Every structure is written in C-alpha cells, then in structure tokens.
Automatic annotation (TrEMBL):
<protein>
    <submittedName>
        <fullName>DHHA1 domain-containing protein</fullName>
    </submittedName>
</protein>
<dbReference type="Pfam" id="PF01368">
    <property type="entry name" value="DHH"/>
</dbReference>
<feature type="domain" description="DHHA1">
    <location>
        <begin position="220"/>
        <end position="314"/>
    </location>
</feature>
<dbReference type="GO" id="GO:0003676">
    <property type="term" value="F:nucleic acid binding"/>
</dbReference>
<dbReference type="InterPro" id="IPR038763">
    <property type="entry name" value="DHH_sf"/>
</dbReference>
<dbReference type="Pfam" id="PF02272">
    <property type="entry name" value="DHHA1"/>
</dbReference>
<dbReference type="InterPro" id="IPR051319">
    <property type="entry name" value="Oligoribo/pAp-PDE_c-di-AMP_PDE"/>
</dbReference>
<dbReference type="InterPro" id="IPR003156">
    <property type="entry name" value="DHHA1_dom"/>
</dbReference>
<dbReference type="InterPro" id="IPR001667">
    <property type="entry name" value="DDH_dom"/>
</dbReference>
<feature type="domain" description="DDH">
    <location>
        <begin position="15"/>
        <end position="157"/>
    </location>
</feature>
Amino acid sequence: MTKLEELLKVIKKNKVYIQTHNYPDQDAIASAFGLKILLRNKGVDATICYNGQIDKDNTLEMIEQLGIELFMVDEVKMKPDDEIILVDGQKGNSNMEDFAGKEIACIDHHPKQEVDSYLFYDIRSDVGACSSIIAGYFFENNMEMTVDTATALAYGIKMDTAALSRGVSELDIDMFYYVYKRADAEKLRSFEKCSLRKADLEAYKKAISTLKIQGRLGIANIGADCSEAIIGSISDFLLSLAEVDFTLVYSHRVGGLKFSVRSESKSVDAGKVIKEALKGYGDGGGHGAMAAGFIPNVNTEKEVAEMARLVEERVTRLVTAI
C-alpha cells in the first residue's frame, strides 16, 4: 500500500481541509496544492486554509499564475468534526494554529513531534522540502500531474532547499528532476523576478549596518515590522558571507520579537539552537539547517533591547560551545 492509499483509508468524509503552517511559504503552499490535486483525483474535495499573512511577492505571483485557491481560516466555516490534514508543519508547533476541526493526518519534513493523535502521518525529517514528499505520491501512484502542479512542486523544492544546496536528500533531487521535466520553466523564471521590493532594501541596509560576527556566528537586527519572508531572506543572505556559518536575524513586530536562524554547520542544529535559546520566553524550531522562533509580549524599546540581548547571548553560547 502506498502512502497516498494509507492516507485515503483514514479520510471518512468527501470534503477535507488542508492546513499549512502560519504565514505559508512556497513549499507549504505547493505541498498543499499538490495534495489537493491528488485528493481530487481520488474523489475527495479539499480546501487549503492557513492563518497569518502571505507577504512575499514571489509567493503571491506563484499563487496567481498557477491559480492556487487558498483561504484564511476565518473565511471558512470549519466545524469541530471537520477533518484536517496538516502539511509542512505539525500540531503543537508555535507556527501551526489550532483550528476548529480535528487533525486526522500530517505530512511534514520537520523533526517528528507528538504523533499519537493522527490517524496517518508521513513525517520525514531527512527530506529538504515537503513538496518532494507530495511529488513522491504522484510518482509512487503513477498519477499524471498538470503543468501547474508540477511547476508549484518544482518551485517549492527549489525554494526550501536553496536550489538543491541546503538540507537536500536523494528524494529532493529525484523529485525535482521528475517535476521539472513537467513544469513551465518560463513561469518558474518569472517568480524569481518578484523576490524583492524596493522597501525591502531598507531591511538589508539595516542588517548590514548592525551585523555582528562572533566566531562563525553572524547576528543582525533588521529593524521593526519586517515581513516573515524578508527576515528569512536576509538570514539566507548573511549566510552567504565567507566568514559566517550560522546566522541569527531578528525583527520587532506587533506582538513580539521574531527570529530567523540558519546553519551551514553539520554540528550545529538550527532548530535545536533557537528552541533552547527561547526557552522560558517563547518558542521556536525547525530543521538542522533553517529554523525560526517568536517571543510574544515584547513591546517597548527597552523590552526589545533586553530580550534581543538575552537571545543573542544564549545563541552565542550555544553555537560557540559546539
């Protein structure tokens, strides 16, 4: 029995919800879209939903050009007995809102957490992109995919593995080759043209001016009210420095302090570092190569400065101790 067949066995209704993590990125959206097509081909109607905001232009461009339909959670009338399939995240994560329905299944590529409540799960933390897992479902079941589905999955794999250079597995490589042959290369190129806005350059300027390098650790405060997308992008940007193997980037936004971390060191796990660094104040997690975290209820300039200093000290200690 294939993984898709196992999933179909636990679905009891003709309609399900596919939930991504909050502020969904290209991989989360592509995975949800691919799963929706798989389920539709098997007679199950699925609605993609999320919480938060989609604030990166190339993600919005992907959604528009590929005709991906997804909804904020308050736009759908979910009931307690509705069935939810989680993709690219797990129940209990700080970035996975608890919706009204029941989570019957989970497909993810982050480190495994509590799974007892799922009727089905396929969690592979050694895979670089959730899109690769979904592409594998098409391959395993010999199911045709549309050009738009292939394009979405190819873009999801490309973005979450930094063009097959970060956290990549054999499955990512095999599935990227599989979907790229079926994708619209011109659309993929057009998404790349929408990766930055002029206003984003201020955040890059701030990152460069505040950058501190301690050993192989790069730390930057990129200012207030930066989007989820730009925080991650700048973290990737700083990791490209020859002197840096690990990055900590943060921005104060309404409600708290947001962190993004990246690691190119095999001995330093980004997800474990940020989770430990925020213990007692907030929560975080992710992969060995990339992760994020959030501390709520940080409002005044004094609170921001004190909390940022505390996290910087903890991360520095954790990274330099290894």
